[in-house]
């Protein structure tokens, strides 16, 4: 595969954030008339090649060496390669995992799914299924892989339900490591799990033993984002209590969940505010639906009940928007970055420590 058309690696993807800030800062500096006035420069080798054509002004050439165009160059390359995001969804059957994934990415990933009957479920073991879609938005291509775990919590004895998921996460880390030390490092496909949405039932009293076991087994290997499923079945007060209980138990059992990074001092006030709200929303109380209804002449995703309509994207009904913002709009690169530089590094170091040839080094 041509390296330029393969999907980008996390180190390059990370820089996209920078490039977006850059193009915002300079985006308005170019105009058609300015372009015309400088046609003499067009063939100059010194003329900076800005992907959006937004910084090609004489003023700019006189003031700068051109280093400021680097983020734009990175953006151009990253967009050309596309992005990869691997999301695992785990939680008891029927908690709305598939519905939420479809609602998040506005796609139907589970068209051919057949639901097992009760007798099949008793003996069911956890299987791992992968669905991949390419989502293209304004020329930016995201290859999304959703790793589902149907059967989780379905068997009579769920003592070891989490093992299949742990095995999968380890396998993908190992494949990446083997590829990294292999000959062809250019075209490594990143199949490591970047985020695990863990669905918690709204009907219990906080975490169940299976929830604790799963999160404890995986918290050093993957970014866990806890979500309180089917939040429409709880009143606002019950939701607040349930969230507090879950957080207290996460703390009590020393479970490590994904931490939204602190803002930098130079971040905009609005961004700081949004990050604070995001942190306060964890665990996200979510509602999923694939039904679109007309509401005040708007088309919205909603759940229709005899007593009223619950809107998926209404912030007073659920934290769906907060979760989507975090996963896609603000922290996707952080999740990928943590997977590569923290979780994968830990895995790699553990492998090196186990290597008998290094014991005496
Ligand atoms: N009340 C309510 N029901 C929901 C919600 N999300 C999904 N459902 C319903 O719950 C049922 C199960 O949803 P799925 O998305 O198939 O659940 P799942 O977790 O993927 O189930 P498995 O694939 O069997 O593990 C469906 O009838 C959905 O319509 C929600 O937020 N609230
Ligand atoms: Mg499902």
From TrEMBL:
GO cellular component: cleavage furrow; cytoskeleton; kinetochore; midbody
InterPro entries found in the cross-reference section: G_SEPTIN_dom, P-loop_NTPase, Septin
One term of GO molecular function: GTP binding
Record's keyword terms, sorted: Cell cycle, Cell division, Centromere, Coiled coil, GTP-binding, Kinetochore, Nucleotide-binding
Low complexity biased stretches: 21-32
Biased amino acid composition, Basic and acidic residues: 33-45
Location of the protein in the cell: Chromosome, Centromere, Kinetochore; Cleavage furrow; Midbody
Septin-type G domain location: 81-354
Pfam family, one: Septin
Family membership: Belongs to the TRAFAC class TrmE-Era-EngA-EngB-Septin-like GTPase superfamily. Septin GTPase family.
Descriptive protein name: Septin
Species of provenance: Cirrhinus molitorella
């Amino acid at each position: 595969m041509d390296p330029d058309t393969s999907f980008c690696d996390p180190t390059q993807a990370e820089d996209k954030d920078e490039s977006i800030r850059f193009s915002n800062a300079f985006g308005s500096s170019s105009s058609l008339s300015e372009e015309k006035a400088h046609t003499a420069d067009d063939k100059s080798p010194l003329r900076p090649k800005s992907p959006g054509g937004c910084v090609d002004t004489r003023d700019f050439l006189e003031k700068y060496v051109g280093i400021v165009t680097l983020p734009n160059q990175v953006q151009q390359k990253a967009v050309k390669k596309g992005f990869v995001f691997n999301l695992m969804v785990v939680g008891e059957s029927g908690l709305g995992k598939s519905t939420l994934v479809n609602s998040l990415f506005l796609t139907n990933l589970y068209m051919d799914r057949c639901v097992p009957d009760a007798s099949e479920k008793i003996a069911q073991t956890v299987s791992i299924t992968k669905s991949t879609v390419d989502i293209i938005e304004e020329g930016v291509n995201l290859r999304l892989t959703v790793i589902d775990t149907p059967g989780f919590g379905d068997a009579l004895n769920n003592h070891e339900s989490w093992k299949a998921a742990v095995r999968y996460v380890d396998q993908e880390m190992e494949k990446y490591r083997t590829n990294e030390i292999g000959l062809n490092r250019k075209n490594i496909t990143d199949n490591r799990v970047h985020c695990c949405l863990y669905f918690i039932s709204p009907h219990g009293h906080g975490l169940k033993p299976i929830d604790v076991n799963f999160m404890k087994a995986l918290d050093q290997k993957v970014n866990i984002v806890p979500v309180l499923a089917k939040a429409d079945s709880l009143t606002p007060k019950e939701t607040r209590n349930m969230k507090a209980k879950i957080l207290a138990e996460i703390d009590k059992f020393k479970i490590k969940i994904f931490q939204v990074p602190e803002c930098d001092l130079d971040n905009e006030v609005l961004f700081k505010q949004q990050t604070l709200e995001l942190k306060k929303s964890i665990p996200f109380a979510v509602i999923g639906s694939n039904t679109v209804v007309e509401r005040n002449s708007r088309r919205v995703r909603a759940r229709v009940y005899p007593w009223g309509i619950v809107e998926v994207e209404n912030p007073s009904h659920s934290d769906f928007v907060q979760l989507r913002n975090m996963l896609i709009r603000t922290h996707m690169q952080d999740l990928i970055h943590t997977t590569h530089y923290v979780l994968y590094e830990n895995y790699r170091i553990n492998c090196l420590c186990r290597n008998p040839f290094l014991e005496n080094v």
